[in-house]
Amino acid sequence: MNGLTGAPGALIGFTVGVTCARRADELGALLTRRGAAVVHGPAIRLLPLPDDDQLLRATRAVLERPVDIAVASTGVGFRGWLEAAEGWGLGEALVNRLRGAVLLARGPKARGAIRAAGLSDSWSPESESVAELQNYLLSADLKGLRIAVQLHGEPLPDFVAALTGAGAEVVTVPVYRWALPADLGPLDRLLELTASGGVDALTFTSAPAVAVVLERAAQLGGGERLLRRLYADVMAVCVGPITARPLLDLGVPTVQPPRARLGSMVRELADALPGRARRVTAAGLELELRGRAVLVNGEPRPLPPAGMALLRALATRPGHVVSRAELLTVLPGGGADEHAVETAVARLRTALGTPTVVQTVVKRGYRLAVA
């Protein structure tokens, strides 16, 4: 690992795609702070809570009959539920109903939201995982119990099925349901950029966003291209295992943080992505090839697309001669003749700061000056 890994400049030279709607600005800022170029293509949008008929129906279902257990999966979701209920004139009744239930919080933010509402939580998993929460519930006799599960975009079908299979009646409370974005243009541009090799990592914060990305790519005729990139050279970064599941089911490798937090996800990305960079020593210089830049002895040097393409081709076989004709094929958009290669090599040498890194082999081509 080079000295930039984990540091503020860890992602210099890399392009990262952001597919989330909520907290996209926060995630983008975290990535930019580490030097990444960020491309935002929201895959989903949040439905306004006051207009959400499903949430209203679920709230009324909780109010109609007492619930024995209530699960708060997220702090923002639990607060949003109470705020929406307040807007419908049902806030006080909902809090009173929940006061009579055993309240479980998936993590500290959900626990804080419960306590901020004047309620008391009974337990939360140390791992903050749905799996540990499920095991805790299944360790008791759930037959005949009524359980309200506050969701946050994720349907959690396996969790709900496990509870109903144990004999419980489950009322799912879908807070902040997702819908397709009103404008699919930014997502379509991100998908094309990813499929064409212009993105180094793609981030996901919800399983619905993963599903939409895969479905939209297929609709545009680029589903296979996108998957090939995700299998090979585009890192899929997911905030947690539930988000990652649709990708893992397809055999796509993912990177996940130990805790489902945006900050943890960005740190994991900043640690992992530089490890994919190609490294080579030429003319006594340490070169690290990233998505759109090269580090020369640890210092970033932005390269134009043509220069980056040539350097990648040369670095694939360091020290070996690569013909002008072959280099011409890797230039973005191709080139009219081999003079385009000579021009691109000259600009590459200038960008690297030394002409000796790329050697000319007369009548044969070019090579990296590897000892």
Can you give me a brief rundown of this structure?
The chain has 371 residues and is α/β, with parallel strands linked by helices.
How would you describe what is shown here?
It is a single chain. With 371 residues, the protein is of the alpha/beta class. It folds into three domains: 128 residues, 3-Layer(aba) Sandwich (Rossmann fold), CATH 3.40.50; 128 residues, Rossmann fold (3-Layer(aba) Sandwich); 91 residues, Winged helix-like DNA-binding domain superfamily/Winged helix DNA-binding domain (Arc Repressor Mutant, subunit A, Orthogonal Bundle), CATH 1.10.10. Helix 8 packs across helix 10 and helix 9 packs across helix 10. It is elongated and about 85 Å long.
Assign the CATH architecture of the largest domain: 3-Layer(aba) Sandwich
Q: Counting H and I runs of at least 4 residues, what is the number of helices?
A: 15
Q: Estimate the helix proportion, in percent.
A: 40-55%
User: Any idea how many domains?
Assistant: 3
Summed over residues and divided by their number, the pLDDT gives a mean of 91
Q: Rg, please?
A: 26 Å
Task: Summarize the biggest pleated sheet.
Answer: 5 strands, parallel
Q: Calculate the terminal CA-CA distance, rounded to whole Å.
A: 22 Å
Query: Which term fits the overall shape?
Result: elongated
Strands, count: 17
For the largest beta sheet, what order do the strands appear in spatially?
Answer: 2-1-9-10-11
Structural class comes to alpha/beta
Low-pLDDT runs: 1-6
Enter the CATH topology name of the largest domain: Rossmann fold
